[in-house]
Structure formats: C-alpha cells, structure tokens
Write a structure and sequence with these properties.
about 160 residues, alpha+beta, Alpha-Beta Plaits, SH3 type barrels, five-stranded antiparallel beta sheet, about 40% strand, elongated
Length: about 160
C-alpha cells in the first residue's frame, strides 16, 4: 500500500535525496519556499523543513533497503523501529499552505510591502517586509533606525500589512 513517510536527510542534502529517489521511481514531496538571499541578490528556493522531505512508496513492494541506503539520507522518521506513516491529509495541508506562501507571501505579504509591527517590543513601528525565514514562523523585516535600514527577525504573527 502506498504511504507517505518523512525522511531525515543530512544538512543541505534534501534536493539530492529527492532527485535520487525520483530517479528510482519514488514519489517525492519536498516543500520549498522562496527566500530572498541578499548575498546572492536574488530569490532562491529553500526547503521549508530543513533536513526533511516526504516520500510516498509501498514499503513491501519496494523494500526498506532501497530507501535506507539512499546517499544523503540519515534515516526514515519512526519510533520503536517502525517507520511512521504521514497521513495523506497532512501532506495535502502542507502542499496547500506552501502554495499559499509562495503565491501570496507570508501572511499575504510580499517582499517590499510595508507592514506594521503589532506585537512585541517593536509594536507600533512600520517596516518593510523582506522575506519569510525557512522552518520557523519568523520573518525578516527592514526597520528604519537612526536614518538607516536595519534587518530584524521577528515572529510572523507580529506583523500586519498596511492597507
């Protein structure tokens, strides 16, 4: 029976593991989001869950060794020696949410838009949304402080788009 499993990879090997498994005919889901890389001066796709991806396969038909010995893979997530099945509904929810983030930005905010900080010690200040940060419910904003823009990382629910 086809089931989804969470795979734990070595750091920065998510794309490699996904490519190898796809080459073996395994259905793979690697949730990625667009992240602005200032150093590169462009957007880049990064895993939403660093070191994790999902694969759908029939363990009995495929055999566990085909998956376990994939270069770059540390292990299949599980407990007490049993691989844990990820429900289809969870995968669909993640796919939907990732699509929303990639289309609308984090919380419907796109890079470059003005936002207001509504919680925390910076409450009431205005900023420019720069980018969502992978794997955390955090965002990077630019605050004007003493005549220059400063980067600041804050929880995503602390900001609101200025209408």
């Amino acid at each position: 029976m086809l089931c989804w499993y969470a795979l734990y990879t070595k750091p920065f090997k998510e794309f490699q593991v996904a490519e190898i498994l796809e080459g073996k005919g395994v259905e793979v889901f690697l949730p990625t989001i667009r992240v602005w890389k200032a150093r590169l001066r462009r957007e880049k796709q990064e895993p939403f869950f660093p070191c994790y991806l999902f694969a759908r396969f029939d363990i009995e038909a495929l055999g566990p060794s085909l998956i376990q010995w994939t270069p770059g893979l540390k292990r299949v997530v599980g407990f007490d020696g049993q691989w844990t099945v990820v429900p289809d509904a969870v995968i669909e929810y993640i796919k939907t949410r990732i699509q929303e983030v990639n289309e609308k930005g984090f919380g419907g905010v796109m890079p470059g838009e003005r936002v207001k900080i509504v919680k925390g010690p910076l409450k009431g200040l205005e900023a420019v949304f720069e980018a969502p940060l992978p794997a955390a419910q955090r965002v990077r904003v630019l605050l004007e402080f003493l005549g220059s823009l400063r980067r600041c990382e804050i929880p995503a629910d602390w900001i609101e788009r200025i209408k």
